[in-house]
Amino acid sequence: MASLPEFVTMVSEPREDFTLLDSGGGRKYERYGDRTFIRPEPQAMWQPARDEWDADAEFVPASDADGGGRWHQYRPVPGEGWPMRWNGEVSFTASCTPFRHLGYFPDMDPVWRWMRSKIDGIGEPQAMNLFGYTGVGTLALSAAGVSMVHVDASKKSVAQARENARASGMEDRPIRWIVEDAAKFAAREVRRGRRYDGILLDPPKFGRGPDGGRWQLEEGLPPLMANVAQLIDDKSRFVFLTVYAVRMSALALGGLMQSHFASKGGRVEIGELAVREEARGWLLPTAIFARWSRE
Fold first, then answer.
1. Counting Cβ atoms within 10 Å, is residue 89 exposed (0-12), middle (13-18) or buried (19+)?
2. Measuring CA to CA, which residue among 78, 202, 184 is closest to residue 136?
3. Is residue 91 part of a domain?
4. Sign of CA pseudo-dihedral 181, 182, 187, 191
5. How crowded is residue 61: how many other Cβ atoms within 10 Å of its Cβ?
6. Inside any domain, residue 47
7. Which uninterrupted H or E stretch holds 219?
8. Residue 158 belongs to what domain range?
9. Is 15 a member of any domain?
10. Is 49 contained in some domain?
């Protein structure tokens, strides 16, 4: 009988670019650089540690079920965003987006560090970031000497990623910027006979490709992972899959990954991403993941 994947919690600790100051009552109070924000957080079911939160802006969700909402500014926040820096290496612009995000996902910090540790020591490593968004993860690997392929269906997101590369002084690094449906691109890479030392996937629940193609996680993820497995060989080091805001278990992700990677050696692990709250040290869960790695 095959063993079950080990369960791991990857924790984003308070740091200069991001700190979860407090949480509770279905909301979270965060600091992004020198600015503070309040956003909805259904998993913060406890009471806040502080009586009052003094934020620059708050995202107030809409009353309908469409998941919309808008930002209320208590102090002026630049519409074009403000500069931030990760790990002293990656510069990027954070901003109040219409989707309640702020231009990057700070809970991915331990993931970027883990991937860098896995790929350390490889000569001329190559990795791919599918659903790469604004590119902070791509640049975190590029800063460690990894040749990158960055793929996202959003032309606007890829443009921001390229601007973040320029701000980081990485515009001349070996990075391919691809505006395309991530699943279609992965399938084409398989047909081309390509391989990678590492692959990061951060797929949305729903999405649209640049040609209007529809993405739905439960339907699209199994064939995508089958293709990802074909882009990994006996020298590859990692595959990392994160999933946000879905009614799905990490065990399901682990089973999917085991089905495609059991024959490749290495190990499959599952778990949760979490952010440590500064006020009490509590952990706020943010996403589930499955990862495969080879030492």
1. middle
2. 202
3. yes
4. positive
5. 14
6. no
7. helix 217-230
8. 86-293
9. no
10. no
